[in-house]
Structure prediction request, 328 residues.
Amino acid sequence: MTTQLARAAGRHVLKGSYVAARTSGRVAVAGLRVGIRATQQFPDLPELPEGRYVDLPGRGEVYVVDTGAPREGAPTLLLFHGLATTAYLNWFSTLDELRAENRVVMLDQRWHGRGIVSDRFSLEECADDTAAVLEQLGVDRAVAVGYSLGGALAQTFWRRHPERTAGLVLASTAACWRGNLGDALFYPALGLANDRLRPHYRSRVAEVRSGLADVALAGAELSTWAWAEFRSTSVWAMPEVLGVLGTFDARPWLGEVDVPTAVVVTARDRAISPSRQRAMAAAIPGAVVHEAPGGHASVVFDVERWRPVFLRAVAEVVERAGDQAWCT
Prediction:
């Protein structure tokens, strides 16, 4: 009887997590659709640099954007995008300013956009993919810049490839995704569901990926382009990636970070509380905090206030890294 009850409880948790994942994905899609159509704060769509597919032997094919160096000896920025976005969608509003003084390299991460559809999502594999891209491009070191999920990836990149990391810029992110009792209950349940449902998630992600056009630029009108770019990442990737984020915890080793670091805190963030963002900064030796007044999606919906704060943070880390950091 006890075994039967345990199995029934397990099935209930799986079903509940499955429904929750589907519902959260639909809410996210609906919310972004409303935002894209209704907001008056979108910048104009700039002329975006074209990307290309790069084959990483033994790993897969990734979609990479490399702006090239604007001058000899220019720093390289390695941009990591957030959850449910692509490299273009996360960074389009800052690319013009970033590439004016820096070489910018970015790619769609696994299970996102035109990224690799692996058996499962892994922060470590994403970091290693990115290091392999730098190897292919002949880039020795770069400042790793991450937004939200991308912040966890940037931290993981430093942990696994410190010799390639000249500095860190961490925006709207944290050292650990389990911030309260609700998180402590949610993520294990989601992980249990993912173990059962991952093959279904992966097949849906692969289906979306296979139907994407070879070129990621979907048109000149911003809302149409943004919506198409957002839809290039399957909603079914979200529970898998969230489940992995729930296991991420950099706190035991953040005190070992030995490169210039800036943390951009979004002061009205409801997805990752400002207190958790500041706690991450406090754990990194010498990290400098820059505060932006908006919420978690400021990189898209509050660009005019967020962008200058972010650009100052990037410039500061590049300057602190010094000319000796760049070798390509």
Remarks:
- The chain is about 50% helix and 15% strand.
- The two ends are 66 Å apart (CA to CA).
- Confidence is low (pLDDT under 50) at residues 1-40.
